[in-house]
């Protein structure tokens, strides 16, 4: 049987149709994760549970991703890539349908857990799949396009999903998500090339991948960066109330979302030549934004400026860290991506926990200062990782294993 080959051998341009299919998969994943947060009253009334219990539908989703990503990717390394991607997307169609039809809170909770499992697998596959579709010199841009779905879902999809749920009901909204997943299966089948899995003789243990030069610095910097982001983003409403902008949360989040999209665009343009510099600039910029938020809460203009800088820095973060991880891991890129997924979910959970403790103990004004405590060591570590992880001279590892 002839193996599907990469499209870049005959043309030096991005295979946008395939990469946008991957972005659509990320869009559905993030929307599936966060949509219950905007529909808490409806879901709670329908399942006859409290809003607090409905909130656990988001929590259990994150737990599913956290516990499943590494073992699932390790177990499926020998599988062909496109069928595995189709399995993850098809899983979303099933679990969203179960969620829409379920009248049992326990069954809904179980469906959400498995949605998280499929999400962990999907996120671990996206960056490696995008990298394999293009020549080494274009991998950063390819991953940036494939990662577009997440910021679009956060800035546009979730408000639209909430509006849709309020208009037609939360159950039809989840059924629409299932329909989109089914349509996406055909898109991926026709536009995303297939690649073989990794031969058993070339597979490395999870421990050995973790110990590869560069993998640990990338994970450590990413963990600190995303933890800092979630400490503040999770509790942005009480912080803005502290800053005198309690009634403008929607506008602040709109600024953040727009700036995040700008960050993705900038990253896509520059990542293939300036990955190290973008990581350093983004971490330093986020630290300066935190310093400004902690120091000048009396100025609304300063808050909006700081949020804009923060949004630009965060917008490209997922692409930067996933690209750096793929380069550092080479043939074991998918395993390294599963570690990225795990660390990212740890940061989400940790941000909610640490931010809550700080908010209760020291008040909202302490939140920006805690970010600096995380970002300064992250910047130092990224600067030090100049040979591996975030190298001065960009050398693309063999992330395009065939």
List keywords for this structure.
disordered N terminus; Growth Hormone, Chain: A; 16 helices; mainly alpha; globular; disordered C terminus; 402 residues
Task: Please give the CATH architecture of the largest domain.
Answer: Up-down Bundle
CATH domain topology of the largest domain: Growth Hormone, Chain: A
User: On the 0-100 scale, what is the average pLDDT?
Assistant: 86
What's the SSE pattern? HHHHHHHHHHHHHHHH
The biggest beta sheet reads: none
> Any idea how many domains?
2
Number of strands: 0
Strand percentage: under 5%
Q: Compute the separation of the termini in Å.
A: 14 Å
**The CATH class of the largest domain:** Mainly Alpha
- Oligomeric assembly: single chain
CATH level-four homologous superfamily name of the largest domain: MFS general substrate transporter like domains
Measured as a percent range, the helix fraction is over 70%
Model regions low in confidence, pLDDT < 50 over at least 5 residues: 1-11, 395-402
* Number of helical segments with 4 or more residues: 16
Structural overview:
With 402 residues, the protein is mainly α. The protein has two domains: 12-201, Growth Hormone, Chain: A (Up-down Bundle); 206-384, Up-down Bundle (Growth Hormone, Chain: A). The chain is 77% helix and 0% strand. It has helices at 16-38, 40-47, 51-75, 81-101, 105-132, 139-146, 149-168, 170-191, 206-210, 215-234, 236-242, 249-295, 300-315, 317-329, 333-361, 367-384. Helix 6 packs across helix 12 (249-295), helix 6 packs across helix 14 and helix 12 packs across helix 13. The two termini are 14 Å apart.
């Amino acid at each position: 049987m002839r193996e599907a080959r990469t499209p870049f051998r005959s043309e030096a341009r991005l295979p946008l149709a395939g990469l946008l299919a991957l972005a659509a998969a990320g869009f559905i994943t993030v929307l599936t994760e966060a949509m219950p947060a905007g529909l808490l009253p409806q879901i709670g009334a329908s399942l006859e549970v409290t809003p607090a219990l409905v909130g656990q539908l988001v929590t259990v989703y994150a737990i599913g991703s956290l516990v499943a990503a590494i073992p699932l990717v390790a177990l499926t390394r020998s599988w062909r890539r496109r069928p595995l991607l189709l399995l993850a997307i098809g899983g979303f169609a099933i679990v969203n349908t179960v969620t829409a039809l379920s009248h049992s809170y326990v069954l809904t909770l179980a469906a959400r857990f498995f949605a998280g499992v499929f999400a962990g697998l999907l996120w671990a596959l996206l960056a490696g799949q995008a990298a394999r579709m293009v020549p080494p010199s274009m991998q950063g841009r390819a991953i940036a396009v494939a990662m577009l779905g997440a910021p679009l879902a956060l800035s546009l999809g979730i408000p639209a999903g909430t509006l849709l749920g309020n208009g037609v009901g939360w159950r039809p909204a989840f059924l629409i998500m299932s329909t989109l997943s089914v349509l996406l299966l055909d898109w991926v089948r026709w536009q995303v090339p297939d690649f073989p899995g990794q031969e058993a003789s070339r597979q490395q243990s999870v421990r050995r991948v973790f110990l590869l030069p560069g993998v640990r610095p990338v994970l450590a910097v990413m963990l600190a960066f995303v933890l800092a982001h979630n400490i503040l983003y999770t509790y942005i409403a009480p912080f803005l109330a502290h800053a005198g902008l309690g009634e403008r949360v929607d506008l602040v989040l709109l600024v953040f979302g727009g700036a995040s999209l700008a960050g993705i665009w900038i990253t896509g343009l520059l990542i293939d030549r300036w990955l190290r510099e973008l990581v350093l600039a983004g971490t330093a910029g986020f630290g300066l934004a935190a310093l400004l938020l902690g120091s000048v809460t009396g100025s609304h203009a300063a808050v909006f400026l700081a949020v804009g800088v923060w949004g630009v820095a965060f917008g490209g973060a997922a692409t930067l860290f996933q690209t750096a991880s793929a380069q550092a891991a080479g043939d074991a890129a998918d395993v390294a991506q599963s570690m990225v997924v795990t660390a990212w979910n740890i940061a989400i959970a940790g941000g909610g926990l640490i931010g809550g403790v700080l908010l209760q103990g020291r008040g909202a004004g302490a939140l920006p200062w805690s970010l600096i405590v995380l970002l300064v060591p992250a910047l130092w570590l990224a600067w030090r990782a100049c040979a591996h992880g975030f190298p001065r001279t960009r050398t693309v590892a063999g992330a395009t294993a065939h």
